[in-house]
Write a structure and sequence with these properties.
This protein is mostly beta strands. 12% of the residues lie in helices and 50% in strands. The protein has one helix and four strands, in the order αββββ. The protein has a four-stranded antiparallel beta sheet with strand order 1-2-3-4, with no helix packed on it. The longest helix has 11 residues. The termini are close together.
Length: 90
Amino acid sequence: MNGEKTMELRDIEEFKNQAIDALSYFSERERSIEAINHIQSSIEIIINYKAIAAIDFHNGLKKVDEINLQGKSIFEFSDDGKIVKSTNMT
């Protein structure tokens, strides 16, 4: 976030656990794809994100506050088509 690493997940189990934990953070979520760009062995996806907070966050975001963000996810692929790295930026 803002050029700094805030989380690192090393395997499917860590990714799954983080996704399950995050379900309780927002009462509503909406994601839409703005653009998809293919760059060599990577795919860059620009995403619009809207959500309503379900909890109070340490950064000052309060329950029922709405957030609107645009982010970018970059997926890097191995030669056999498997995702080897995912980077998300807001």
